[in-house]
């Protein structure tokens, strides 16, 4: 019995040492294709009492994005005497790098709890907005509490990867162009575009004839003193009218006798 106890004690000590030094490694290699989604990552705001919580969480979120296969762009560092970036600066930098979405967030918990066990706890909020119009495309919040033997970094890594994995792919797709509505005009004629060689001309199409409206023809001009009858052309689609009879073809009418009177 004593021999068995002596054999188990070193094994238990070695097992506890391994669990206390356990670590989680996430390697995000840059193996994204040329048409991979372009994401602009703004430094995450720090809403905790930990001084470097925002910087640490920004690095973890960037690693999770690259691990997913996205191309991550960050704002260049500023000099000591330069003013801080504004929201307009972030949008302009994202548009210059042809990023479709801007990713921002805040870390609201990054500490070891003050209870007897001292569990590590981390909390993060991320949101994605469009580069062109600033529309909110997605937003999520996650938190994690590790075990007493785990580190604060491992708890924060779990939160970052959990949120990044839940970002839908649709936020990285460009928005379709909005179709332009047709312009209504009062002119009944519709312009027809004709292309001849390299020149483009516009002609006016004839207006459609309304039902029940007669096709008016111009009246013929008759010179004074002329004995010829005016000739009018029949409307399109109608048979020509019969010609009028001339004076030679008319029958002779009988002349009544003149009455005579006698004086009384």
What does this structure look like?
This protein is an alpha/beta fold. The protein has a domain at 36-172: 3-Layer(aba) Sandwich (Rossmann fold), CATH 3.40.50.10610. It contains four helices and eight strands, in the order H-E-E-H-E-H-E-E-E-H-E-E. It has helices spanning 2-20, 53-68, 87-96, 152-165; strands spanning 38-41, 45-46, 71-73, 101-112, 120-130, 136-145, 191-196, 199-204. Strands 1, 2, 3, 4, 5 and 6 form a six-stranded mixed β-sheet that branches. The longest helix has 19 residues, at 2-20. 17% of the residues are buried.
SSE topology sketch:
Elements: H1 2-20, E1 38-41, E2 45-46, H2 53-68, E3 71-73, H3 87-96, E4 101-112, E5 120-130, E6 136-145, H4 152-165, E7 191-196, E8 199-204
Parallel strand pairs: 1-3, 1-4, 2-4
Antiparallel strand pairs: 4-5, 5-6, 7-8
Helix pairs in contact: 2-4
Could you provide a short overview of the structure?
The chain has 264 residues and is an alpha/beta fold. The protein is 22% helix and 20% strand.
According to CATH, the fold-level topology of the domain at 36-172 is Rossmann fold
Structural class: alpha/beta
CATH architecture title of the domain at 36-172: 3-Layer(aba) Sandwich
- What letter string, H or E per element, gives the SSE order? HEEHEHEEEHEE
Mean pLDDT comes to 74
CATH top level label of the domain at 36-172: Alpha Beta
The radius of gyration is 46 Å
Q: Beta-strand level of the residues, as a percent range?
A: 15-25%
Q: Could you estimate the helical fraction of the residues in percent?
A: 10-25%
Counting DSSP E segments of at least 2 residues, the number of strands comes to: 8
